[in-house]
Design a protein that fits this description.
By secondary structure, the chain is an alpha+beta fold. The protein has 7 helices and 15 strands. It has 2 domains: about 5-25 and about 195-315, no CATH class; about 35-195. An 8-stranded antiparallel barrel has the order 1-5-6-9-10-11-12-13. A two-stranded antiparallel ribbon has the order 14-15. α1 (about 5-25) packs across α6 (about 265-275) and α6 runs antiparallel to α7 (about 290-305).
């Protein structure tokens, strides 16, 4: 293949990939909008500040901390609504500590529900920490999602990581010294899948089809492959064919990203591998000793390191 022809094919592949593959590689994430409901932190000149949900937000045995719009990306693509609620009107409290930070103590179960036309996710939230920003009025709540349910639960096999931004009208770091209260509202947040402890190689994905075969297939080199076709590629021979050697490792990397691991450290090699494989359907029978074959083997080596957990910043545990 001439250099000019190969460059032209790469240019076409870039356009195709930007149009189709970026959506495929979008992270699975639920973006939480304005929670709309105001609750209260109560100060009573002690180190303890209870979180109290007003009676107006309690009905049918549930008290709502937040109730607003949300949207999903990746496999969760679409828009819907979410609710965060508890059967208690005081599901947690804060304890002011000597260094000025707060400890979160959760006394009742907090539930999460997201629903859209495309799917749903439910679970329980466990608040682990709450930290103020510099202005002391914006607070970040870190939580974990456990017991995932709903049609989207298959994308959260290990639960989820939750980050919620909450705004108060009075600094909580001062509230504990006075008798009074501060209203607080969930402003925004994210829910992302908790990563498995480590990526997996192409052999793992080949033998665990149920973890990734959901009817969407994969876009490889600008060409769309069904789940069955991807499985056939994973089981295909890579002997004396650099394109299949690379494809095996690229498929594994893409499935690892879709499974929730961070794509930033490896994204450039995923993009480059897709470009190198843009010259038609697989297998392409590329001589490993050719110039193109050597490029493919180079990208495959980096993807192998990522899939084998040797690029340590790629995981998010």
């Amino acid at each position: 293949m001439s250099t000019k022809r190969f460059a032209a094919l790469l240019a076409v592949a870039v356009a195709v990939l930007l149009g189709t593959n970026m959506m495929l590689l979008a992270n699975d994430q639920i973006n939480l909008g304005d929670g709309l409901l105001n609750s209260h932190f109560i100060g009573n000149i002690t180190a303890i500040e209870p979180y109290l949900i007003p009676a107006i937000d309690c009905s049918g045995g549930d008290c709502y901390l937040a109730n607003g719009s949300a949207s999903g990306t990746g496999h969760l693509q679409g828009s819907g609504t979410y609710q965060i609620y508890s059967t208690s009107d005081a599901p947690f409290f804060l304890t002011h500590q000597a260094d000025g930070t707060f400890k979160v103590t959760q006394t009742n179960t907090i539930y999460f529900n997201y629903s859209s036309q495309n799917g749903s996710l439910t679970g329980q939230l466990s608040f682990s920490s709450i930290n103020a920003t510099n202005n002391q009025l914006i607070w970040n709540i870190i939580a974990t999602l456990t017991h995932p349910g709903g049609s989207y639960s298959r994308y959260f096999p290990d639960g989820g990581k939750v980050n919620i931004t909450m705004q108060a009208i009075f600094p909580l770091s001062i509230l504990y010294t006075v008798n009074g209260f501060s209203t607080a509202e969930f402003e925004s947040g994210t829910v992302i899948p908790a990563s498995h402890c480590g990526n997996h190689d192409h052999h793992y994905w080949s033998y665990n089809q149920r973890q990734w075969q959901h009817g969407q297939g994969l876009n490889i080199g600008g060409n769309q492959y069904s789940d069955d076709q991807v499985q056939s590629l994973l089981q295909g021979s890579e002997y004396n064919d650099a394109s299949m050697y690379l494809a095996h490792r690229l498929i594994a990397a893409m499935l690892n990203v879709n499974n929730g691991t961070k794509q930033d450290p490896i994204q450039r090699y995923i993009d480059d591998a897709n470009l190198l494989l843009s010259n038609g359907q697989l297998p392409q029978q590329v001589d490993p000793h050719s110039s193109l074959g050597q490029q493919m083997l180079g990208d495959a080596a980096m993807l192998d390191s990522y899939n084998g957990n040797y690029i340590t910043t790629a995981g998010s545990h």
